[in-house]
Amino acid sequence: MWEIIAIAVLALLIFGPDKLPGLASDAARLLREVRRMATGARQDLKESLGPELGDMNLSDLDPRAFVKRNLFDPIDGEVNDFKRAIDGTDDETNDAEPPPSPRYDSDTT
């Protein structure tokens, strides 16, 4: 928040109060134009990919999102499978008593 206030004060001092509204409207116009161009480029890319890849989300191409989704997010049922493998049970419900916890030995810790 303080950075925005500092930038606004500096812009007011550098450009003056008479030129600042015109510069702000020019910046807003430029931002709208860049957004329009990005939307057009995204639509052109989806059209050129064809119908089989047209419904693909472009954020899926982000390498960070790909790694996070494939390495860190659990697959459906994966957590339960892992839990069953540790417990040694084959069914999803475990009616048996849990195994006893290991004894605490102060000499080894």
Write up this protein.
There is one protein chain. This protein is mostly helical and about 110 residues long. The chain folds into two domains: about 1-55; about 55-90, no CATH class. It is about 60% helix and about 0% strand. It has helices at about 1-50, 65-70, 80-85. The two termini are about 50 Å apart. The mean pLDDT is about 75.
Give the arrangement of secondary structure elements.
Elements lengths: L1 H48 L13 H10 L5 H10 L22
Keywords:
flat, 2 domains, 109 residues, 3 helices
Strand content: under 5%
Number of strands: 0
How would you describe the shape? flat
N- to C-terminal distance: 49 Å
- Give the averaged pLDDT, no decimals: 77
Q: What proportion of the residues is helical, as a percent range?
A: 55-70%
Low-confidence stretches: none
Number of helices: 3
Give the count of structural domains: 2
Instruction: Please give the radius of gyration in angstroms.
Output: 29 Å
How do the helices and strands follow one another from N- to C-terminus? HHH
Largest β-sheet summary = none
Structural class: mainly alpha
